[in-house]
Amino acid sequence: MTQDFDSALPDTLPLHPQTSLQRWRPVSHSSMFDIVQSEFYEVIKEIAMLGQPIDLRPLQNAYDELIRAQSRELRQATLIHDTKESYKNQNSEIEPLTLENWDDYRNGTLKAPKLANVYSETKQLLEQDPAAFMPPVNDLKKLITALPFILQDPQSVIPDDNNTNDEIKVEGGQIELKCPISQDFFRQPLISRKCGHVVDAEPLRMHFERLRSAGRPVECPQGCQRTISESEFIPDKLMELRLHIYKARKRPHPEHSNAVTL
Ligand SMILES: [Zn+2]
């Protein structure tokens, strides 16, 4: 028994079939990302309430950095997940370790995969498609894209907005800031996830009530002749911003009100 310790041990060993590798998992920052996103929304709202066009580049740069961080986290989580799957698959195809085959694993006749190698291989595969880990376009991204346009004109149509061809919503190239039912300015605008039409919350509730009590199907109040349900309506953050800006513009300037009181 003169073998040194190193060569007495196999280089790699098969994964025990009952080892789940569950404890090896990425740290998730998704709740932190949620907080940062809501902070972003508050900043955007404050900018809208000022109602004046400002330099938005610092905000856009910070947002891009957030997206890069989310993308990195998504990639890392996928890398760990795929590595574990691949490592388990490779182990399921080799002989489980026994006293009898210990020497075969030690002298290299039998070989078990090395986790570090599987990790590197998986990483190389993922690097072939860098665009695959961009987070999906979310509401915040849409608001940041729209902000420069609506700061210029709160009723402006956003280029590449899916609603630009909607003749009902856009009249004379302007977005309507009034509810199609009440004809008042939106107070709590809700947007349909199905047709993109915007209705104010309270008039919409009454619209449902009226038609249901008459035993009639409830159609979209903007005339797209679709039967609608309450659950398809979500808060329209973009419309809220448009109204903040519109109202900020209507307010008299402080200098002006000073002049009046003098
Ligand atoms: Zn509709």
Automatic annotation (TrEMBL):
GO molecular function ontology, one term from the record: SUMO ligase activity
Organism this protein belongs to: Lachancea mirantina
Keyword presence, Metal-binding: yes
Pathway noted in the entry: Protein modification; protein sumoylation
One annotated Gene Ontology cellular component of this protein: nucleus
Domain SP-RING-type residues, every copy: 166-225
CDD domains, per the entry: SPL-RING_NSE2
Protein name (record): LAMI_0H06986g1_1
